[in-house]
Design a protein that fits this description.
Structural class: alpha+beta
Number of strands: 4
Strand order of the largest sheet: 1-2-3-4
Order of helices and strands: HEEEE
Largest sheet: 4 strands, antiparallel
Shape: flat
Distance between the termini: 81 Å
Radius of gyration: 26 Å
């Protein structure tokens, strides 16, 4: 292909690319159906305040370990708010559960169980 032919192909092809990228239809990124999104309290100006629960009274974190034959590790973060509510986040590395099963994290007071 000579230079003139190449320029003609490019000059015809480039506007076509621009036209296809100027569609009215918007492209969006959709979340997969199998994911959930959870809010995590974050500090603003050194203080955590949640619109629903109020000011954070205390924060704790700890490690998570597997039990028995279950190999697992991770970290749990817990927030206690002035209205008596708790928020907890768990990041866990573990094998997927069997279909119909799931994992839960609980805050347990060691004094009262």
């Amino acid at each position: 292909m000579n230079n003139i032919s190449s320029l003609m192909v490019i000059s015809l092809f480039a506007p076509l690319c621009l036209l296809t990228s100027c569609k009215e239809e918007k492209v969006s990124i959709q979340k997969p159906d199998n994911l959930e999104t959870h809010s995590q309290p974050m500090p603003t100006g050194g203080v955590v305040v949640d619109d629903r629960f109020g000011k954070e009274v205390w924060f704790a974190y700890g490690s998570i370990n597997g039990e028995g034959d279950t190999s697992a590790n991770g970290v749990l973060q817990a927030h206690y708010f002035e209205d008596g509510s708790y928020a907890q986040e768990m990041q866990l590395n573990i094998q997927r559960p069997e279909d119909g099963s799931f994992f839960e994290a609980w805050l347990i007071n060691p004094d009262t169980g």
